[in-house]
Specification:
Helices cover 46% and strands 15% of the residues. Strands 10, 11, 14, 15, 16, 17, 18, 19, 20 and 21 form a 10-stranded mixed β-sheet that branches. Strands 8-27-26-25-9-22-24-23 form an 8-stranded mixed β-sheet, with helices on both faces. Strands 1, 2, 3, 4, 5, 6 and 7 form a 7-stranded antiparallel β-sheet that branches. It has 36 helices and 27 strands.
Length: 1037
């Protein structure tokens, strides 16, 4: 009997059920049979009916006995933890080192012992030597605080989203004899749940009844192969796994922290509770331990995803290789396996460029610092040791010369510090945070922050057709029945022979998911509401148009009476349902892609509803005369067929009836689903979204290639692509089916994809029809790996199905559908389209380019200031031994650059002109030729003005030249004021980085920029007029 004591009123202890759920395969079947007398005995023990479920009133007591279906969320990271994570950035680490060195030097200068009579420039300047170090430290603190606050806000938003998802995440549960939608958190042990394709299982359970059920358990076991489930094969279903095929019912046996996923969360420290409610210290199964060791941590933005709290899809499922993959894409990315178990996400395109730029700037600063040090040493040696009149002719003095040497090191380090772009991290953080917040209003829910800027570099978009380019409001508009094509459906049920109309209505009603329904319109004068699979809804709508109701047929054949289901998948491209035949035997109904269904037919119903032979010539004729014209009109063509298994000896058999001796071998699908009788072909219209053609034109004008990847007929795909503008008359682009695509890209000898062959196909490919998820993954991987484009391709992909997970994960940016998307697709994505609309992708491109340009604008602005500051610092040290720009004044300049300019330039709104240029691509340098010209040109202009004022200021302004003065002078005040004003006006110049002539264009749209600029200008006037000794300024007389 059961392995544990402590039974409750339900006859099973918590530990007993946990022990049961550790069994797998035939071991589980045997244990259920021996301990409970089968699954019916287990249901009886748990006081649940396999048909009517439990009573709603029992839910509280079951929660008390077995726990609630909720895993306590991992405590949020503290603000300090988020701040420490923010400090891991390379540029920030470099800044921290510079700040510490600068502070150490200033302290050394302050407290060192000076030789008698030694002066060191401006005493007050020396007293303020700490300001440079503090200024850098201040910049670091601001960046860390802003980043940590952004992460904290993002974490809070995700938790708010989780609370919302918990109210929206419903599951089909049978209670009180009725199928109802129940909150996942309210599912309890003993509930009877209906499971179907695309579901992420919310609890552990035992299968009661199943139809061709296959589950992806890679999130728990690490095994990518789909596991076939069944009452007599492997009845164990585990939480956190994903249903990839089929349907069925299960009785829930473990929820929350007592489920298999809950146990792993406990092992990973996701909850602070003991592993089990009854104090058991027994470890999780070996498979779970293996997964917990190998599971890829999520390095995205430090905020936990919503799925970390609720038992839904686990990211491992989405990240696994495509089902049925043959490793053919291994050539595309040899490091894929290395990445799979990497502890951190690969840097985004912009992050990689910024890190590279920071390193180069640091190297250039170090080189200039070294040259400065060398010049100072040479100058000192000449002036000190050379004989008069060149030098002073002094002897070597260790103390004096060491002190000078240290002074030169200090100056050189100061030059390096000035060269570092300390405001860059803040600009990046502000720009991304601002954009992500705004993108939500444009129906883009950004899950991974770096996806925002990556989308701005996108060069290719591989889009689904249904629901993204089209409305996903499907309607049957043409039918081919009884040998006649009806281009406008006007006939009713009685207008066809009963053999045709009755079999058609029954085939559609029964051979569909019973969750697919058509409900009355919620608002008067609107179309009826389609619930469930939209293709099935179109077919059910046809039944209603014929004057019948699908529920009448479903009542005759309730779901539990269905004998066998071969569910739709990307390989079959059809769905088949087997039911009991009145009088004995079985009737099989099949629907799916018209070519697929017809290829399995041997008969067709004629105009009188009688079967006649349907050979290859007749099939090809219908393809030419019916299917291709429908497809060319942009219709999806669905074939409907049936087959009757009649017991031998039941009398005269019809030509299309199959004699039956015993039970057919249902596992031999090819044999079972063959020699069908075709009822007819139905053309379903899914109109193109009205806004999509304009959106695709914008993408093409922006240099982004849009490709359609669909499972539809090639003619349907070509027609829709033409309507969308993906294909244009006269253009020599490829439209391929999946099998032709694979034939072209695979080596005929090895069967493996080769990059050379792939590169001959993808540049001209625009439509991939009759494609599988593996084909989509291969296409994405190959384009990313290709080196044909000068800037390398950056690929975005849309997906809504469970099998789209690998392609979404592989893409640079993965878009999941918020309405039609499955849990697995959403988990694998970077951005969720909350309206499932392609035009929202175009908005994401605009925001991404805006982020990239905002950071480029800030770089152009800051590097100009840095170049001027470095040159002035080097010149001052090496030539005049004085500096016109004091440390406290540079603090003000840094404040302008770091905080105010970051805020002003990072909050520019995107404009349509962003879509008038080509994408940058993967390898284009962050600072292009135009930006470099602007930086050098503006820097030269500012240096000319600065040095002119330094040496010839008395000719321009009525003030004497005073170099080496120990008190504030009008001369240096004028230089400081000119430098700041040039910096301010350069901030306006920096708003344009693409050779635009009108630098004031769009200024009125960014009121924050105008406000910050005016505020800075006013503050500069006040500093010059009233700064005095604090800011080392003197009022002009």
């Amino acid at each position: 009997m059961a392995a544990g004591g402590g039974r409750n009123e339900y006859g099973c202890s918590l530990q007993e059920l946990r022990t049961l759920m550790e069994c797998r395969g035939h071991e589980a079947v045997s244990k259920i049979q021996s301990d409970y007398g089968g699954v019916d005995g287990l249901c009886k023990r748990l006081k649940a009916s396999p048909q009517s479920g439990i009573n709603e009133s029992e839910v509280p007591s079951r929660k008390q006995a077995f726990g609630a279906n909720m895993i306590p969320p991992k405590p949020p990271k503290t603000f300090l933890q988020l701040a420490l994570e923010a400090m891991q950035d390379y540029t920030l680490i470099m800044l921290i080192v510079c700040a510490l060195v600068s502070l150490a030097i200033s302290l050394y200068q302050k407290f060192r012992t000076k030789t008698p009579g030694e002066t060191h420039g401006d005493d007050s300047e020396e007293q303020a030597g700490w300001i440079e170090g503090v200024a850098i430290a201040f910049a670091v603190v601001v960046v860390v605080l802003v980043t940590a606050f952004n992460d904290w806000s993002k974490e809070r938003q995700f938790r708010g989203l989780q609370a919302k998802l918990e109210q929206e995440h419903l599951f089909d549960v049978i209670r009180n004899g009725q199928v109802s939608k129940v909150l996942v958190n309210d599912i309890v042990v003993g509930d009877i749940c209906q499971v179907k394709y695309g579901d992420a299982l919310p609890a552990d359970g035992i299968i009661i009844q199943s139809n061709d059920l296959k589950v992806d358990e890679s999130s728990l076991t690490g095994e990518s192969d789909h596991v076939k489930k069944g009452e007599d094969r492997d009845p164990i279903l585990m939480s956190g796994t994903n249903v990839m095929e089929g349907s069925g019912r299960m009785i829930v046996t473990a929820v929350g922290i007592n489920s298999q996923a809950g146990i792993i969360f406990s092992l990973l420290g996701a909850t602070g509770e003991a592993e089990g409610a009854d104090g058991d210290d027994k470890p999780a199964p070996a498979q779970a331990q293996k997964r917990s060791a190998n599971d890829k941590p999520n390095a995205e933005q430090s905020a936990p995803h919503p799925e970390a709290v609720q038992l839904t899809a686990v990211s491992g499922a989405a990240g696994s290789s495509p089902a049925g993959g043959d490793g053919a894409t291994n050539h595309v990315d040899d490091e894929e396996k290395k990445k799979k178990y990497s502890s951190s996400k690969e840097k985004s395109i912009l992050q990689a460029k910024l890190t590279s730029l920071a390193i180069r700037i640091g190297n250039v600063g170090s080189l200039i610092g070294a040259v400065t040090f060398l010049v100072l040493i040479i100058k000192y040696c000449v002036l000190t040791f050379a004989q008069p009149p060149t030098g002073a002719g002094l002897e070597f003095n260790f103390t004096r010369d060491l002190q000078k040497f240290i002074d030169f090191v200090i100056i050189s380090v100061t030059v390096i510090v000035v060269a570092v772009p300390e405001g860059l991290p803040l600009a990046v953080t502000l720009s991304l945070a601002y954009s992500v917040k705004k993108m939500m209003k444009d129906n883009n829910l950004v899950r991974h922050l770096d996806a925002c800027e990556t989308m701005g570099n996108a060069t290719a978009i591989c889009s689904d057709k249904t629901g993204t380019l089209t409305t996903n409001r499907m309607t049957a508009v043409q039918v081919y029945l009884g040998g006649a094509l009806e281009k406008k459906i006007t006939k009713k049920y009685s207008d066809y022979p009963k053999e045709i109309s009755e079999m058609l209505c029954k085939a559609i009603s029964v051979n569909s998911g019973y969750t697919s329904r058509i409900l009355p319109a919620e608002v008067a004068n609107e179309l009826p509401k389609q619930v469930g699979n939209k293709t099935e809804c179109a077919l059910l709508g046809l039944v209603l148009d014929l004057g019948k109701h699908y529920d009448d047929y479903r009542r005759e054949v309730p779901e539990e009476a269905i004998h066998k289901i071969y569910t739709f998948n990307s390989v079959r491209k059809s769905m088949t349902t087997v039911i009991n035949r009145p009088g004995g035997g079985y009737i099989l109904f099949c629907k799916g892609a018209s070519e697929m269904v017809m290829s399995k037919c041997a008969f067709i119903l004629d105009g009188q509803g009688q079967p006649r032979p349907f050979g290859k010539p007749e099939q090809e004729q219908i393809v030419r005369q019916v299917i291709e014209p429908m497809a060319c009109d942009g219709l999806r063509t669905i074939g409907i067929a049936f087959k009757e298994f009649v017991p031998r000896g039941s009398g005269q058999l019809g030509p299309n009836e199959v004699p039956l001796d015993g039970e057919p071998d249902w596992d031999n699908e090819d044999q079972v689903v063959s020699r069908l009788t075709c009822i007819g072909v139905i053309g379903i219209e899914d109109p193109v979204r009205p806004e999509v053609p304009a959106a695709i034109r914008k993408c093409q004008n922006a240099g982004i290639c849009v490709r359609m990847v669909t499972g539809d007929n090639i003619n349907t795909a070509r027609s829709i692509a033409t309507k969308c503008g993906i294909l244009k008359p006269g253009e020599n682009f490829l439209v391929l089916e999946g099998k032709d695509f694979n034939k072209r890209i695979r080596d005929p000898n090895t069967g493996q994809v080769t990059q050379d062959r792939f590169d001959q196909v993808w540049p001209r490919l625009r439509v991939l029809a009759r494609s599988s998820p593996q084909d989509k993954y291969t296409l994405v991987s190959g384009i990313i790996a290709s080196k044909m484009s000068a800037g390398r391709e950056v690929v975005a992909v849309t997906g809504d199905g469970t099998n789209d997970g690998p392609a979404l994960k592989k893409a640079d940016v993965g878009f999941a559908m918020g309405i039609q998307g499955t849990d697995v697709a959403k988990e694998a994505s970077d951005i969720i389209l909350t309206d499932d609309n392609f035009s929202s992708i175009v908005k994401a491109v605009m925001w991404g380019r805006n982020v990239y340009d905002s950071i480029s604008k800030f770089l152009q602005f800051q590097l100009t200031v840095n170049v001027v500051a470095v040159v002035v610092a080097v010149f001052s040290a090496c030539v005049i031994s004085d500096t016109p720009l004091r440390a406290i004044q540079m603090l003000w300049v840094n404040l302008i650059m770091d905080t105010l300019a970051s805020l002003a330039l990072a909050t520019e709104l995107p404009s349509d002109e962003l879509l008038e240029r080509k994408p940058y691509g993967r390898t284009k340098p962050l600072i292009d030729t135009t930006m470099l010209r602007n930086i050098v040109g503006n820097a030269l202009y500012q240096l000319v003005i600065t040095f002119f004022l330094l040496f010839c200021g008395d000719k321009m302004i009525d003030t004497p030249i005073e170099i080496g003065s120990r008190v504030p002078t009008e001369h240096f005040t004028a230089i400081f004021n000119a430098f700041v004003l040039m910096t301010l006006f350069n901030e306006i110049n920096a708003r344009k980085i693409h050779n635009q002539r009108n630098i004031f264009s769009g200024l009125q749209r960014n009121l924050l920029f105008v406000l910050i600029w005016i505020t800075t200008f006013v503050l500069q006037i006040l500093i010059v007029q009233y700064g005095g000794m604090v800011f080392r300024t003197r009022v002009w007389s």
